[in-house]
Amino acid sequence: MQQASFAFFLIFNFINRDISNIFLLTTLALSIINFDILKDSLKSHRKLIYLILIFTSIVIVSVILNNSSISEIDNYTRLLLLTPLLTITFSDKHYKLIILAASVAASVSLIYTMSLYDHERYWGTSSHPITYANICALMSMVSLYRMFMASNKYDSIIYGLSLIFFLAPMFMTATRGQLVGILICIALIIVLKKSYKLFFSSLIILLLVIFTSNSLSTRLNRMVDINLFDIQANGHVSIRERVAYLHYGILNSTENILIGIGPSTLEPDMKKWITKNNYAVTPRDHLHNEYLDVLVKFGLPALIFLLLIYFYFIKYSISIRNYEILIILFMLMSSQLTQSQFAHHQSITFFMALLYVSISAVKRNSQ
């Protein structure tokens, strides 16, 4: 039952995220009911559970000591609350169909939305184009990896179609941040398969995206004039804000190295800093860089344990030779360079859900 519920969670992320949340809660409830299986799953990944418990405890302590609102810890507890998903496994046959169904849902939603509304940037089911671009990019890289690792031509075609169906809405978001992760994942697949065909085809597509006139290339061209040292010298508001948040984060990274300044303090404190320096920037409650955001809000210990959690996934992936885990993790870690994923429920939930299911389903993709 929980496999079916999780499948609908995955698919409805590209149709209606509120319905997908219902299926996620159902999946978690069903997974907890199977307590014996859950206990065995948690035991088999006890080191991961310990790291998550320590990370979550540090976040809670920081919130309390800094007199921040308890609601601030909500998304940071996702790592812990989603651990029952470790009980879920899929056969290759079923997972293939789920990915295809999700990709079709993503493309049909794109066609339907664009036929009714005139969007400069496509948002999909998310609250921001960046969030939707990241989950589409993640699924496109999972599809690409599985296409090259498929044992037969039929499966390669299925995953190839899924790749196309996920890439279409991703490009319509005109988002740049996910390209770093895509390049890393393509490089990993090229190394694993020694595929010159993938290398040259990826290079051609990248050159076409950069040098042809499209919304994504326009946004990429803006990066040429980035000034990391003079905030006001950046003409485009999005780039100016990101540079400002970077400056603020670095300046405040050692403010309280053990417990941070607290999540509730960040936005009002940033507002004072912006006003004092007369910057044309909007203050926000996150820094658009997860690592800097966690460091400033919760201190160095929290950042160290978050990185140790990621290291566990890397080590486990290599030990069982299931590199799909690395694909998902690299997409998450790279996306966190340009977006605070913990500030967005849909993205952090989607990434962690796929990670947990991937490390529990060893039989699916071990190479």
Describe this structure in words.
The chain has about 375 residues and is mainly alpha-helical. The chain folds into two domains: about 1-195 and about 310-365, no CATH class; about 225-300, no CATH class. It is about 70% helix and about 0% strand. It has helices at about 1-10, 15-35, 35-45, 45-65, 80, 90-115, 130-150, 155-170, 180-195, 195-210, 215-220, 235-250, 265-275, 290-300, 300-320, 325-335, 345-360, 360-365. Helix 7 runs antiparallel to helix 16. The longest helix has 25 residues, at about 90-115. The two termini are about 30 Å apart.
Give a topology summary:
Layout: H1 2-12, H2 17-33, H3 35-44, H4 46-65, H5 78-81, H6 92-116, H7 129-149, H8 153-172, H9 179-193, H10 196-211, H11 215-221, H12 237-252, H13 263-277, H14 290-298, H15 300-320, H16 324-335, H17 345-360, H18 362-365
Helix pairs in contact: 1-2, 1-6, 4-15, 6-8, 7-8, 7-9, 7-16, 7-17, 9-10, 9-16, 12-14, 14-15, 15-16, 16-17
